[in-house]
Structures are given as structure tokens and as C-alpha cells.
């Protein structure tokens, strides 16, 4: 099941005056059920087949897959970015690999299911065959000498693991990626005229709550007043109590260590402490017993 929510808003600056221009921020919510069948995100189509960047969230426990298709489905070559195979392993690879962990890139526990299920933030960047993926606490990268064109993005989970997904931005172009503008050529009475082609998919969005601001010239302060409630909601939604993070909770929990060597060292330590206590208190008990006998004889 996929739920899509779209808003249109962007700011451009001309002589210290800001105007609202059409741009698109797409929210996609969906659930995957662990069948390892990819769901293509048709409304999150990359604007370039060379490079891109996307940010998203996952609410799950393990086995989360993101695919970058070179064609229309997973029957054609693809890149697969996997988070939390068998609760722990993550990797980037070319082609479908399922739950195979051969050549994994990270053994960091991404989802921490033992600490409770919570939304985790992820970022994936690809640039001409080089792929970089990260979360708050770890990152991994991988390069392909024969890069694929990325035409579609798809997601799934495997091993009967379910997950909820939230994609809250468009696929953007990384700063280090230079994409040539697409052009069309129009013949005008014996001359050739080149026209820039807009590739923004938001032209298909018919309406939005911000559309009435599109042609208004507003100062930055005026825009801030209009967006006060929206910005406050974003601040509340993005603020995290550090005492509820998994990193903080782990500092308060003593992790078990079941290795025989650890148990042996612990047993020796306990025996040492008990022996000292017996020697100290044992001598006092003997003296106390003798003093009690003398009092009794009197």
C-alpha cells in the first residue's frame, strides 16, 4: 500500500525579495511485507540517470532492500543496497543477492530491535557507479567499474520481515555531480533555436496549499511569518530527546559476555574479594569469641 502526499514550495531571491516558485516535495508512505518482491516508486523517479541523492526513513527490524534499476524491473541489471541482513549485516552490490552476506560491507546493527522499533534515517547517494549509504551512526561505500544508468528506484524487505517506509524528498542532484541541461532544437525560418527543457515532474501536480503564493513578491520576514506554523511543526517532528536514543541507552546497559575467559576472570575476582573479607573479619571473630568466653567465666 502506497500513500503519497505532495506540496509545492520554493524560494528564489531577486534584489532582497523572495518569490514562491514551483518545486516539489513528495511524501511517500508504504509498507513492505518481506516477500522480496520489489515495489517501484514511480513518483520518485530520478531526474538524472547518472547521479542522485535521496533521504528516507524506515520503521523496521531487519532485511531492508533498496534497488536502483537500470530498466523497468529487477529482471534487468540493478544496484542493491541492503540494511540489516540477519539483524546486523549491510552491503551494496550489483544484482539481486537476497539474504546472502558474502562480501558484506558493515556488521553494524542498523535497527537495534532489542532497544525497541523506531524510525531510522537513511541517505543514499550514487554518482556514476559510486554508491554511498549512511545512517546516523555508520556509513558504507562501493564502486562499480562498469556503471549502470539509474532509471527507477524500488524497495522491498525479505525473510518475512515487514517494514514501513517514508520518503520525504525528491531525488536531488549531489553538488559534486554536473549534469548537462537537456536541450531541444526548434527550426525557426531557416535558423536553429535551442530551448531548455524542464525535467521537473512537479509540473504534473495540479494544486497545493502553497500555490497561491507562487506569483507573490514577499520579503524573507513575510515568508517566515506565513510559514511559522509549518516550521514549528517541522522543528517538533525533527527534535529528538537524546536520552531516548539507542546510543544513550547503551551507555546505561551492561552487555552480557558469555565467553569462558570472561567468566573465569569474573570468578577469580569474586574469589579474591571473598578471601580478603574472610581474612579481615575472621580474625576479629576469633578475638570476639575469646572475649566472650572470658566474660562468661567471670
From TrEMBL:
It holds the Pfam family Methyltransf_FA. This is Farnesoic acid O-methyl transferase domain-containing protein. The chain crosses the membrane at residues 265-289. InterPro entries: Methyltransf_FA. Keywords: Membrane, Transmembrane, Transmembrane helix. Residues 34-169 form the Farnesoic acid O-methyl transferase domain.
Amino acid at each position: 500500500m502506497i500513500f503519497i502526499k505532495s506540496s509545492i514550495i520554493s524560494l528564489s531571491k531577486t534584489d532582497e525579495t523572495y518569490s514562491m516558485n514551483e518545486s516539489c516535495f513528495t511524501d511517500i508512505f508504504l509498507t513492505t511485507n518481506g516477500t522480496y518482491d520489489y515495489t517501484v516508486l514511480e513518483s520518485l523517479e530520478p531526474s538524472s540517470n547518472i547521479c542522485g541523492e535521496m533521504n528516507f526513513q524506515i520503521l523496521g527490524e531487519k532485511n531492508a532492500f533498496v534497488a536502483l534499476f537500470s530498466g523497468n524491473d529487477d529482471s534487468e541489471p540493478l544496484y542493491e543496497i541492503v540494511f540489516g541482513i540477519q539483524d546486523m549485516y549491510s552491503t551494496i552490490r550489483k544484482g539481486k543477492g537476497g539474504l546472502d552476506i558474502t562480501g558484506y560491507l558493515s556488521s553494524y546493527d542498523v535497527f537495534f530491535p532489542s532497544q525497541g522499533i523506531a524510525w531510522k534515517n537513511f541517505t543514499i547517494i550514487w554518482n556514476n557507479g559510486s554508491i554511498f549509504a549512511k545512517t546516523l551512526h555508520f556509513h558504507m561505500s562501493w564502486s562499480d567499474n562498469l556503471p549502470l544508468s539509474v532509471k527507477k528506484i524500488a524497495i522491498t524487505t525479505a525473510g518475512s520481515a515487514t517494514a514501513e517506509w517514508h520518503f520525504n524528498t525528491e531525488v536531488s542532484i549531489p553538488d559534486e555531480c554536473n549534469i548537462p541541461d537537456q536541450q531541444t532544437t526548434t527550426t525557426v525560418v531557416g535558423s536553429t533555436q535551442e530551448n531548455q527543457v524542464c525535467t521537473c515532474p512537479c509540473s504534473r501536480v495540479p494544486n497545493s496549499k502553497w500555490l497561491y503564493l507562487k506569483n507573490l513578491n514577499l520579503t524573507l520576514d513575510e515568508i517566515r511569518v506565513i510559514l511559522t506554523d509549518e516550521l514549528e511543526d517541522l522543528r517538533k517532528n525533527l527534535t529528538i530527546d537524546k536520552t531516548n536514543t539507542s546510543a544513550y541507552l547503551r551507555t546505561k546497559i551492561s552487555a552480557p559476555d558469555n565467553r569462558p575467559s570472561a567468566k573465569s576472570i569474573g570468578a577469580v575476582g569474586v574469589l579474591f574479594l571473598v578471601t580478603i573479607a574472610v581474612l579481615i573479619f575472621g580474625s576479629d571473630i576469633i578475638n570476639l569469641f575469646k572475649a566472650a568466653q572470658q566474660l562468661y567465666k567471670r
